[in-house]
UniProtKB/TrEMBL annotation:
GO terms for molecular function: protoheme IX farnesyltransferase activity. The keyword Transferase applies. GO terms for biological process: heme O biosynthetic process. Carbon 2 of the heme B porphyrin ring is defined according to the Fischer nomenclature. It comes from the Bacteria. It is a multi-pass membrane protein. InterPro entries: Protohaem_IX_farnesylTrfase (IPR006369), UbiA_prenyltransferase (IPR000537), UbiA_prenylTrfase_CS (IPR030470), UbiA_sf (IPR044878). Keywords: Cell membrane, Heme biosynthesis, Membrane, Transferase, Transmembrane, Transmembrane helix. It is found in: Cell membrane. This is Protoheme IX farnesyltransferase. Its main location: membrane.
Length: 312
């Protein structure tokens, strides 16, 4: 037997992947994708002009695929962190359901497919923005910022705020004030949302070595920043109504939702110790999701109502 043949016989048998379709779906972070898809849909509906339903569905599917690609690439890079954190230890890579190379291949393939399809079938401005969104989330936030600075969420929030801008540009091929308002709302929503999570998951982040604000600056500093960002968020969300960009239904919804958001943020600021502090952070985290969905839903319903003919 030759040396080459003996080496071949010593090689281990090829690994058979144990991944199921649900494991690949989990890689795309479907809960995050649902929020991305909804905000993108609102941006698409708000955009002026006629847009063929097939193109609208194509644009939304591409944005969803792009978000899924970013999620998969995030899990590929952060597999070591995910394995250390209780909240993420059940993800497909730490569980051994999917290997890191498989996740990398899946993420890159999905990213290329989403961007190229959006460019060819819709327009290349939207495709370029989608490519930038994926790049920002994976490279700027995941690879560069997350392990280096407590401002990771603040800067990284740019990626999560861009889907409605991508959707608007898919319809119009340009930008305007309205999608930038939507961008600003999501951008200022991101820090209080994630820092509330970090408050009651502080030990998880500390053990994994992730420099979230409560870990680096302390919980009290994080509570103050949550309150300040919540004030800015509510002001940014309400302002488009008196400025004439969005209607009264949206404005009233923004006021009511904002009042609840501020009350919960103030409660987080006041409750400093014990189980009450953790409960306050959890309440704010959970409501912040409701806040963003409800705010965009009010905007969507107001726009749809304005377009429907009303019989007098």
């Amino acid at each position: 037997m030759s040396l080459i043949e003996s080496r071949v016989l010593e090689l281990p048998p090829p690994r058979i992947s144990e991944a199921l379709p649900r494991d690949y779906i989990a890689l795309t972070k479907p809960r995050v994708m649902s929020l991305v898809l909804f905000t993108a849909f609102v941006g698409l509906v708000l955009a002026p002009g006629d847009f063929h339903p097939v193109l609208a569905i194509t644009a939304l599917l591409c944005i969803a695929a792009g978000a899924g690609a970013a999620g998969a690439l995030n899990m590929w890079y952060e597999a070591d962190l995910d394995a250390k954190m209780t909240r993420t230890a059940g993800r497909p890579i730490p569980r051994g359901r999917i290997t890191r190379p498989e996740a990398l291949t899946f993420g890159i393939t999905l990213a290329l497919f989403s961007v190229i399809t959006l460019g060819i079938l819709v327009n290349w401005i939207a495709a370029g923005l989608l490519a930038f969104t994926i790049f920002f989330y994976v490279v700027i936030y995941t690879i560069w910022l997350k392990r280096r600075t407590a401002q990771n969420i603040v800067i990284g929030g740019t990626a999560g705020a861009l889907p409605p801008v991508v959707a608007w540009s898919a319809v119009t091929g340009s930008l305007a004030i309205e999608p930038l308002i939507l961008f600003a709302i999501i951008f200022f929503w991101t820090p209080p949302h994630f820092w509330a999570l970090a408050l009651f998951r502080r030990g998880d982040y500390a053990s994994a070595g992730v420099p979230m604000l409560p870990v680096v600056a302390g919980s009290d500093a994080a509570r103050l920043q949550i309150l300040l960002y919540s004030v800015v968020l509510v002001a940014v969300a309400v302002a488009p109504w008196p400025l004439g960009y969005f209607g009264a239904a949206y404005g009233l919804s923004a006021l009511v939702l904002g009042a609840v958001m501020l009350a919960l943020a103030a409660q987080v600021y006041r409750q400093r110790t014990g189980a009450a502090a953790l409960r306050a952070a959890r309440r704010l985290f959970r409501f912040s999701i409701v806040y963003l969905f409800a705010l965009f839903a009010a905007l969507l319903l107001g726009e749809l109502a304005a377009r429907l003919p009303i019989a007098l």
